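INPUT
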Amino acid sequence: MYQEADRTRCFRRRLLLLGGAQLALFGGLAWRLWQLQVRDHANYQLLAEENRINQRLTVPPRGVLVDRRGRPLAVNVPTYRVRIVKEQAKDPRRVLEALSEIIALDRRRIEEVLELLRHYRPFVPVTVREDLSWEEVARIAVRSPELPGILLDSGLLRRYPHGAVTAHVVGYVGPVSEAELARDDDPLLRLPDFRIGKSGVERTYDRELRGRAGLSRIEVNAVGREIREVDRREGEEGADLQLSIDLDLQRYCMDRLAEQEAAAAVVLEVSTGAVLAMASVPTYDPGAFAGGLSVALWRQLAGDPRHPLVNKCIRGQYPPGSTFKMITALAALEAGVATPATEVFCPGHMSLGNARFHCWRSSGHGRLGLVQALAQSCDVYFYELARRVGIDAIAATARKFGFGERLGIDLPGEMPGLMPDTKWKRERLKQPWQKGETLVCGIGQGFVSATPLQLAVMTARLCNGGRAVHPWIVRGRLAHVKEGRGIAPPSLGLRREHLEWVLKGMFEVVNGPRGTAKASALPLPGVFMAGKTGTSQVRRISRAERAIGAHKRKDRPREERDHALFVCFAPHDRPRFAVAVVVEHGESGAKAAAPIARDIMLEALRLDAAPETPARGQLAWAKEP
Amino acid sequence: MRGRLDPVAPTVAEKLALLHWPFVALVVLLGLVGYALLYSAAGGSHAPWAFRHGIRFALMFVLMIAIALVDLRRIFKIAYPAYFIVLFLLVVVEIFGEINKGAQRWIDLGFVQLQPSELMKLALVLALARYFHAAYLDDVRRPLFLLPPVAMILVPVALVLKQPDLGTAVMIAVLGATMLFLGGAALWKFALAGALGAAALPILWSQLHDYQRQRVLTFLDPERDPLGSGYHIIQSKIAIGAGGLWGRGYLRGTQAQLSFLPEKQTDFAFTMLAEETGFLGAVAVLALVAAILTVGCAIALRAESHFARLLAAGVTVNFALYALVNVAMVTGLIPVVGVPLPLVSYGGTAMLTVMLGFGLLLNAQVNRDTAIPRFPAEL
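OUTPUT
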């Protein structure tokens, strides 16, 4: 029997041990629960809330852009888009491939979408394609049972009703880049489908147009389905902006320039600096950027030697040529080294040291005064004035008129041009200034370069009584053009009579019997235009070339031909508009640029007389989808 | 109804009086906790889980009482046949599963799906209790004597492992080891088996299915794949932790109610309990389980026959093992192995095993004074 007692004792001992061990394990579990539920409770509570609450940004509609008469230039149109949710699709690649059989969807986009899906949580919808046609929507809807995880919904797409006509001014929107993400912490930019202004007004005023995101906190379940809205903070709609551009004039300018290979035209209101038109050809279609640009098209646009993507009005820098002569004249007059009565004899060239500087007219102009020198654009006259006054005085006057510095127009990428002086040459080129360079700069050649916008601003400042207007596109950006407050732009401090003599010269250019642009006078009774031609050399002409007349030959390669420029204002007695036209390699300012400028001026005057259409009603209409 | 085996066997009424009613009350209480939890898991609805759970529990409760009233010696007699029948079923479903790749490894009984692997736990306890009933410690000391029971353990373990059901296989192995331990096997033999097992781990690892390896790896580092296999355990810990001391309120656990918590009605039922009723509720249920364990042990200690003791201890350990593994699993202490919390989680198989086991346990209680000869004459 002792054996029975033995095994009973053994069993009891071992069972107590085992039971005790198990109870201890239960104690251990209780301790574990204490860890999770009491010690680390706050942490897990937070995680549970993060699980539960989805912060959803409500995207405000982007502000609408309208022209000065309220006609829409950039609007939002409802678009149907197709999106995919990874969690529901199970096998996104298969679903996308099935989708590509019923709507246009290329391989590359499928790979992009798959890459995006890896970035986001499985219940975040990722847009596959926007701007679906009705037919495509219908096709997807019919096949939806075979396309798990595919969602159809509507969003807003940016549209530019006038496309290429306003492309350089209005710009376009595109996906947010890494660099933009890095310098802007607006949460809107983190949204997968958000579009940001990439160029033009869309870029300059992106913050204003974008508005502020609303935030709604939504309780969601594990698959992302919304249960209820916990709370919400309203955002702010993007501001609608009115541009100074007159759509009709803009379109006219683009049409008028269309036959040129590369050209630019700017129309300014001389009293305010408002940009009425800003045309640059060739242009591009901003609509092509909305849905993502194909690589081929991008290469074509970026690689084109005529630079369709560049707004030449603010980024093209050209030697101003003879259009610069007003500056040289004013510098000399203000410095007192010449008077309106000063006369110079032009034998067709001028010698300085052992160098010879030629007039465009090799036979010479004979003896002439300031007005005729401007009218006939005599180079020797201005060589002489430049020699007398010196480069630093010319540069100082030029800067007053906006040369050599950015004018601060509210468009991205404005270039400053170049207005050299002795200091600049010493510091930048480490060389002393040569006297001959003063002469060359005096007729707007050599180092001098300016944008078409600068030329237009110069013209406006000349004819508006010497006031420092600044160019602008959107009202309200500059102090002196704030709505309802007619603060006159500050004076440049020039003698009125000096300005008048120069303007008289410009009047003669167009209306005088020997004016270089007399063929481009306005065909209007009692309305006169004043201007200045410019034909600027792209490269230096060698003595040998000049001897055989090679610099005037028509069969020179295009890129060696002179630029044609013309600046003008009208009406002569009560200036309203300033126009600057640059035709790249147009050869003659009088023949290529002046007729264009004249036609643009005519159109500007005609439209100015047309009754204004109410702006506000138009604005409301433009916002409607 | 007087039994054939014993002319002076007690009546049904006498047996009912001998039942351990406090234990029965604890079991019913745990079943009710399960009901309440499944009601909440369905978002405050009797359908689809709570009601069926209740029906099932009621049926099995009757079964448990019925088993408790059977003559212990009858159970003693069917111990081996039961083991072999279950083993046979295990082989049958294995062959069936082999033929139809990935086919089910259970037999549908209508109100419950019978998994032979689950039933094997009880059958093994029965068979080993029967085996060691005849063994004095001197016998157990003989290595050859231990060969048959080890084989009885390893054969079903191998079959279940092949299914593949790692969790159940490990549980069967642990249960078998427990029986050997209680039967009196020398401790150094366990140490040896443990060492052999450790040496076999690499081989086992190579035999594991990809998803099983995944589970082990994910257990070691749940953040490795937070949206994939690590998701369950991360969400479970968040839910438990968010419960705090007092809980988020019955029917108000956001993790469970908003479906962040997977399998909340089955393997992760305890998680939901912990989220909604907090540390206090979770510990209360742990205490309930521990109380059942304690009473089970007490019944085992009190029983007269070695068979009854081993039987009672075996089913008690089996039950406690379920609970320990389940809670350790949902709190992230061990890999997710798919072991439910018995009587609380939805699902009939575990409940059947546990309730049948409790029937045997109560039987041992009722027959605590019944002696069974080491070698009954008729065998």
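end of record. Chain B has a mean pLDDT of 86.
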